[in-house]
Amino acid sequence: LAAAGVRVLLLEQHNLPGGFATSFTRGRFEFEVSLHKFADIGSHTNSGSVRDFFENDLGVHLDWVELPEAFRLILTDPDEGLDVTMPYGVDAFIEALEREVSGSKESVTNYIELCREVLEGLAYVGQSRGNPDRKLLLTKYANFLKTAPYTTDQVADALKIPEQARKILHAEWSYIGTPTSRTNFTIFAGMLIKFLTFGAWIPRQRSHEIVLALEARIRELGSDVQYNTRVDELLVENGKVVGVVTSKGDRIETDFVVSNASPTLVYNNLVRPKSEVPEIALKECNARVHGLSGFGVYLGLDAPPEEIGLREYHYLIYKNMDTAKNYEAFTTLDPPKIQAVVCLNNAIPDCSPPGTSIVFITALYRPEAWRDVRPRDYVATKNKIASELIADLEKATGASL
């Protein structure tokens, strides 16, 4: 908004910006809180839309670092028997998959080309601002329309992707957060083709570098940011916003509010008077189901990655690729069946002091998994899960943590 010439006041209840895009320090180590990798960045000569947005639309320039590989997928079930490291780049990915699953090249090539067509169709619909040319959609973007109603699994079935190749193609299903039997193919296709085309990147100084650069640019453009300032009331008259009241007691008049708080919080707690909350807004809030939450284990280790035995940046360690069963397992606190692991030093060697390394493990849970955990058992439960994740990482990779 500020880059578009709007005068903005950003109110933040915390004492720094970022939310999940932040870092924290413990002793010698600065840990990235959540970011594994960014899609759609690309290089200066092959830039994605996110890099274009930052640099051309916002005037924000960051020190991006390209990740060395797509992922290393390890399936620990003896019946699965899969341990493969995949590259980015469409041609390189197809060739690596063919080496792993002989005879898969044709069907995988067709699958990835379909992903490209779907993304182009999605981009066209976005650019048309809700008014696409129907004739053009039916001709140039026919496959975008044909596949729109189908799941990721259904499209893989239709293209006869070999089972072993499908496991590798769908390896990053957990980043979307629903099983491939339920994930809309349009969404998955967009993620996959963007990663394959532009690679994956991270900012050199953790994800907090992003928000600090954005904040500096907001101020540079003549707008303002206030920290330690919570919005307590969102004032509405006759269906229109007229202002906000802050935790400091200030009333700020405005005709527009963009809230990054959850709709549940906004409509139940902030709007004043409550009679101004639209009925449809409450219905939408009540219809929402909480998605997955991340469980993070942050490890600062007193040995370099090569000594520990972690050679890659990004690991996906699953018991198997039955995504539906894995998703159901997120509802319990049984030992996690999947984990995503990052060894930051294998992308940014100097991210920690010489002779050390940073490893970050992420598992996923549905909110109901924690429902019966008593407050007095909370820390012990977390430590138990962390120990199980570390043990699974060591067993899968042979690393010595």
What kind of sheet is the major sheet?
Answer: 6 strands, mixed
Q: What's the order of the H and E elements?
A: EEEHEEEHHHHHHHEHEEEEHEHEHEHEEH
Q: What class, by secondary structure content?
A: alpha+beta
Strand order of the largest sheet: 6-5-14-15-16-13
Number of helices: 14
Beta-strand segment tally: 16
Work out the strand percent.
Answer: 15-25%
Shape: globular
Oligomer: single chain
Low-pLDDT runs of 5+ residues are none
Rg measurement, Å: 23 Å
Overall mean pLDDT stands at 96
Report, as a whole number of angstroms, the end-to-end distance.
Answer: 46 Å
Helix content: 25-40%
SSE blueprint and pairings:
Blueprint: E1 9-11, E2 23-26, E3 29-32, H1 49-58, E4 64-66, E5 71-75, E6 82-86, H2 90-100, H3 105-127, H4 134-139, H5 142-147, H6 152-158, H7 163-169, H8 185-198, E7 201-203, H9 208-220, E8 224-226, E9 231-237, E10 240-246, E11 251-253, H10 263-270, E12 271-272, H11 279-287, E13 293-301, H12 305-308, E14 314-318, H13 323-329, E15 338-343, E16 357-365, H14 378-397
Parallel strand pairs: 1-8, 5-14, 9-12
Antiparallel strand pairs: 2-3, 4-7, 5-6, 9-10, 10-11, 13-16, 14-15, 15-16
